[in-house]
Amino acid sequence: MAELQTLLLVAPVLGQSLSLLERVTVAGLLLMPLLSFLSLFLFGRKLPRHGDWLAIGFMGLSLTGALFLFSQVWGQTPLHSEFTWFLLPQPNGEVVSMQAGVYLDNLTAVMLVLVTFISLLVMVFSVGYMKGDALYARYYAYLSLFTACMLGLLLADNLLVLFICWELVGFLSYLLIGFWYQRQAAAKASTKAFLVNRIGDVGFLWALFAFFAVFKTFNINSAQALLATLPLQAEQGVMLLLGFGLLAGAMGKSAQFPLQVWLPDAMQGPTPVSALIHAATMVAAGVYLLARCFPFFLPEVLLTMAIIGVFTAFIGALAASQQQDIKKVLAFSTISQLGYMVMGVGVGAPEASLFHLITHAFFKASLFLISGIVIHAIQHAWHHHSNKILFEAPIDVQDMRNMGGLRMMLPLTFVCYGISAGALVGLPFFSGFLSKEALLLASVQWAQAGAGWQWLLPGFGFATVLLTAYYMARQLLLVFFGRPRLKLPLKSYKYSPRQEVSWTMLAPVMLLTVLSLWVFFSWSPLSSEQSWLVPQIASALAANSFFPANGHQAHISWILYLSLAMVVLGGALAFFTRQAVRAKQFTKPVMGWRYWLKNQFFLNEAYAFVVVRPTLALGRLTEKTDHILNYGLHAFSKGFVAISKLIAWGDRWVVDGAVQVVGWSSRQVGHLGRSLQNGNIQSYYLFSLLGLVALLFWLFY
Amino acid sequence: MMAIPLLHLLVLGAILFCLGLAIVLTKRHAIAILMGIELLFNAANLNLVAFAQYDPDRLQGQVYSLFVMLIAACETAVALAIVLQVFKYFKTAHLQDIDQLNG
Amino acid sequence: MPSLPQVLFYVFAGLAVGGGVWLLLSKNLLHMAFALLLTLLGLAAIYVLLYADFVAVAQIMVYVGGVLVLILFGLLLSSNATGSFVAQEPVNRSIGLLLAVVLLGGGIWALVQSFDAAFGHYPAVPALAQQAALGHYTSLHGLGKQLISTYVLPFEIASVLLLVALVGAAAITKQTSRK
């Protein structure tokens, strides 16, 4: 019957160190969204208003629960309770008992509040945004289930449960990206997101194998305790596998180069979903995982992580600077910011990453919801207009070339946008400034401690600040300034003559915007050192014993001036090129380098083109060269056959053979690369089995 | 009275399991692969029943094997329904030819 | 000198493995179905030898009577006019077989290596056989009691699952593509 209790989620509350009230709250926190999912999924259509009040009410209760747990845990010793999940008899007669449970520390508590809070706001926003959708009830059901899984991910005390929830949120993300599955693009985007995530998840799975092989447990805290006692020299290989596997998982989920291609496409989902899942919560799960597992990373893994992070941040910002779709700008910006966070973990400052994660969640959710308002307004206006004029081609309501001058129609939205954008680019007095400052400081300290070339990393970090300022100012200018480029009556943009948008949509945005101000995170607007959040989060994270501790936490003042200069420079660049940008964006199809940036260096195409085709072509080319050489050598040796048969022999076997081997092997490499991605379910099965066999082999020898 | 040695039962289970695995990996037709999966289920069931001999009061293994059969039946029904839909849509039931997700 | 149950076991084990090998090597889908039948029947017989008479009957009823018939129907419905039941050449043949053989070898090796340590303390004559030796034995009573006492909740959930699978299968099959 123990299995059944697990199934019914009763067991997690049978803990040791949580009080009864806390246990009930944890169970309620998980059960409430699940209950809301079940009732909406099954009876949503029959309920009044399709049950949105039910989902919002349950989420409000969850938020209350999360706040209660926060008040219990914050600044206190972490709470932990676990139960025996299942027993695993070993061949030598002993029984390994697998534990699962709930781990509540400062980090979990603050993340719980964050997730439930943003989820609640997004649900409220969706009342206006999704009004009249055919699958309205199902939308809320999915959102509820997503929140439940995300909470499970945060509460899990061990990697296996975390992995299960990780997969579940990925699946929910798939469902919600493809929510309008009748659209081909949405269906394709959801499949793509799912599959690209699979690549990362294979890495995660391998990391799980490695984790269990080393520690014989999945519990993160027990493993941390074991870490000091392990003969690490002997376990180097597995620890590397573990680190790179976790990194791969995070790269998939948090959209890091080269697996970031799914996130821009994920914007096919409804905009509130983008705000909740693809900006604020789920994509941050990768960073959360990296921070949680920070002590397990070897220096090589951390270095890779830092480089991948900063590179992603840079190219994400580059791509964002040339988008025309309002949501795509934000999507690439998310990729870029996630890159910062991953870099932060890589340079040994996971608490700064998590701080940025939290501030980013608020202002990015706000920005996405604002883009939802803007899209809604354009749609409203166009709908109004096209009722009168028939037979006109539909417009792309997300294209910024169709916007402009919206500050006149949507003044409150404009103000909110300005504040949130200020937080994103890192202006002082906004939350983003504090967290970005912390990250840049960490990267500079890392570079100071390391070799000279390591200065490239903060260098790219600062360049990204400039680009961030540029693309946000560009978006601001394109969307809210200038004149409306659609020749529609100004009144038609508004929700009603008195109101710019409905309150259900505006209120969440305003709340999130207010939370983008510095005062909620730190008393000092210019430094994160006085933040009440960071030290508490840092206390929840274990230190990495492989990482050379950088003792000096000194405040480096020039960072402040340099990043401010970068922001001003970026903003100025956008301001002074605004005419050109408008003209170019509006009339000509963009070509040249802009086109490159816009399509993020054609990375999607590149996967098909740069990796697969050239290797094949190279194979063919070398084969051809080989033929030519063959001919030439043949003639040559015929001419000089009298000189020596020996040379001919040498030619044929040494030179020829080498060329042939080169040609053959590059062809094989091409084939190998292509065959890994053949979309064939049996091959995937085969690969995973191969991995299993290899691992078993490794374990038993 | 000589009982059947447990080791031999386990080896038989392993052989059947690997046969099933080989079938799943090498066959083209979706239904052939389904048969391979049935073989995998059966190999697992054999182990359950073999161990149930040592548990006369509760017969856990046998009960589990009944549940496995039930799940297998459900799985076959749903999988065949899906295969039929796939066949209707792609005009083939060869999994090798269905690679829409080719990247 | 092996006893009668042992001899019978090796005969039926041979039947099951032979069926499996035929299943693996055959290219004709109908032959494969028959090979599967052989394996299933062999296993049912082995279950009887292991004092699991009810499981054996269930094996025949569910697998032979249900699953296999379903598979045959599936074969009939998914064969196009030109393609007979002859399947094409196998895929990933060498690597697939290699993997299976490696796993089999490794599995048997591990079994033989660790068998005594893991199960050596088990009695040579299992408890069920001892009970059976006392008189006519059937697992039916035990199973029945277990199913309505200890396993009653899984049992009920399983019945719901069956219903859902039934409805689901019907719904999927009935669905016409909305294009």
TrEMBL record, chain A:
Its main location: membrane. It is a multi-pass membrane protein. It is found in: Endomembrane system; Membrane. InterPro entries: NADHpl_OxRdtase_5_subgr, ND/Mrp_TM, NU5C-like, Proton_antipo_N. The chain crosses the membrane at residues 25-43, 55-75, 107-127, 139-155, 161-181, 193-214, 234-252, 273-291, 297-317, 329-349, 355-378, 410-435, 455-481, 501-521, 556-576, 684-700. Keywords: Membrane, Transmembrane, Transmembrane helix. Residues 156-448 form the NADH:quinone oxidoreductase/Mrp antiporter transmembrane domain. Residues 97-140 form the NADH-Ubiquinone oxidoreductase (complex I) chain 5 N-terminal domain. The keyword Transmembrane helix applies. This is NADH-quinone oxidoreductase subunit L.
TrEMBL record, chain B:
It comes from the Bacteria. Keywords: Cell membrane, Membrane, NAD, Quinone, Translocase, Transmembrane, Transmembrane helix, Transport. Gene3D superfamilies: 1.10.287.3510. It catalyses: a quinone + NADH + 5 H(+)(in) = a quinol + NAD(+) + 4 H(+)(out). It holds the Pfam family Oxidored_q2. It is found in: Cell membrane; Membrane. It is a multi-pass membrane protein. The chain crosses the membrane at residues 6-25, 32-52, 64-87. It is an enzyme of class 7 (translocase). Its EC number is 7.1.1.-. InterPro entries: NADH_UbQ_OxRdtase_chain4L/K (IPR001133), NUOK/Mnh_C1-like (IPR039428). PANTHER family: NADH-UBIQUINONE OXIDOREDUCTASE CHAIN 4L, NADH-UBIQUINONE OXIDOREDUCTASE SUBUNIT ND4L. NDH-1 is composed of 14 different subunits. Subunits NuoA, H, J, K, L, M, N constitute the membrane sector of the complex. NDH-1 shuttles electrons from NADH, via FMN and iron-sulfur (Fe-S) centers, to quinones in the respiratory chain. The immediate electron acceptor for the enzyme in this species is believed to be a menaquinone. Couples the redox reaction to proton translocation (for every two electrons transferred, four hydrogen ions are translocated across the cytoplasmic membrane), and thus conserves the redox energy in a proton gradient. Belongs to the complex I subunit 4L family. This is NADH-quinone oxidoreductase subunit K. It comes from Nibribacter koreensis.
Automatic annotation (TrEMBL), chain C:
It is an enzyme of class 7 (translocase). It comes from Nibribacter koreensis. This is NADH-quinone oxidoreductase subunit J. It is found in: Cell membrane. Its EC number is 7.1.1.-. Belongs to the complex I subunit 6 family. Pfam families: Oxidored_q3. It is a multi-pass membrane protein. Its main location: membrane. It catalyses: a quinone + NADH + 5 H(+)(in) = a quinol + NAD(+) + 4 H(+)(out). The chain crosses the membrane at residues 6-25, 32-50, 56-78, 90-112, 151-172. Keywords: Cell membrane, Membrane, NAD, Quinone, Transmembrane, Transmembrane helix. NDH-1 shuttles electrons from NADH, via FMN and iron-sulfur (Fe-S) centers, to quinones in the respiratory chain. Couples the redox reaction to proton translocation (for every two electrons transferred, four hydrogen ions are translocated across the cytoplasmic membrane), and thus conserves the redox energy in a proton gradient.
